[in-house]
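Q: Give me the 3D complex with protoporphyrin IX containing FE.
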Amino acid sequence: MAHFEKANSIGEWFDQRLATKTLERVLAKEYWIPKDINFLWAMGMVLAITFGILLVSGIFLLMYYQPNVDTAFDSVNYTIMQEVGFGWLWRHVHAVAASVVFLIIYIHMFTGIYYGSYKKGREIIWVSGMLLFVAFSAEAFSGYMLPWGQMSYWAGMVITNLFSMGSLEMNGVVEWIRGDYVPGQAFLTRFFMLHVLLIPVAILALIGIHFGALRIPHVNNQNGEELDYEVEAEKYKSGNKAASKVIAFANDFMSKDMFVVAVYLIFFFYLTFWNYSFAMDPVNFDPADGLKTPAHIYPEWYFLWSYEILRPFSKDIGLLAFAFAQVIFVLLPWLDRSPNAVPASRRGLFKYWFWIMLANMIVLTTMGKLPPEGINNTIGLVSALLFIGQWLALPFVTMFEKKV
Ligand code: HEM
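A: Here is the predicted complex, encoded as structure tokens.
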């Protein structure tokens, strides 16, 4: 048994047992953040807060939701929306947060790409971020199944069909995933389990890794300047804060982060109270019916770009193109061959690569919502080929970039 002195305060009592002062120093008081960053660096905190909102609102919905094919639809659309006091509010908060979280994830991701924040020791931040993106996608998809409306059912049917692997027709796999020949009770129960337990736990673990991976390389800055953190931190600690290029995470940087979070919450609650319908598909207000296929089956807006990469091709090539789109972002730190971790505007051909990629993903998103006919097919095909071509070209685009 270790020797313990009598503590003089509650703080000291905890410090003796949990080393809370060391934790506070390493994670907050002496966790150094460069001064030269803008509001885009608050998106990580905005994401963490949005995830918190999803957890809390989800717990309230869970108190009345029933994961049963006969009662799920009514438990959401009748019990929660009409009978339970403020049930509608929790549902709107949850639906809006589920949609907005993807907008913020895309902004956060493209900020990272623009500033080259996936390079030079930041690979684990990037890969854990991409795994978070995949986990959030799975979380959104499984949540979409739960109200058991028409879109839940048919999106579930179409997406699980992908696992038949094109003309390999591995139907056994599809049925194994569904637990039945078509989406039914077994399907709903397992997606319920994934949505409320397994994926949230995975997300929490990934957020832990993502934050941990930030501690040593620190966040990047607007000019990609390499800082000597020890020298800059000494200036800060000695009281020469103006000359130092860094500030402490707590309380200095936190207060700036919280300002951006507050502005974001105004936007968030504006959507929740006045414009929530964008986050809910009208077709999903009809109960699931396995005998009535909706005229157009399309995913939520945040999946449209990858859906549009799948659609213009034949079954097999479409599936390969879709799989390519899902994994290729993970490889970015290794496909970008340039040594420069600076903003895209200061890099050679990469700056065109970046803006074309962003614009093309917006085109793909727009096309994914339109019915696949006439000129839409041609635009979709060209955009999908451009997307794939850009990624294949990336090593060559960046290989000869001069060091800045
Ligand atoms: C819920 C999901 C996520 C949370 C809570 C989160 C949180 C954070 C936080 C707090 C930071 C530090 C401050 C900042 O730069 O904003 C950060 C940095 C970073 N994140 Fe995420 N993130 C998430 C998802 C992602 C995704 C999907 C990616 C894309 C692959 C990503 C890539 C990065 C990168 C590259 C950095 C380093 C930025 C830099 O060094 O300047 N993150 N993240």
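A quick observation: Residues 89 and 272 are 8 Å apart (CA to CA).
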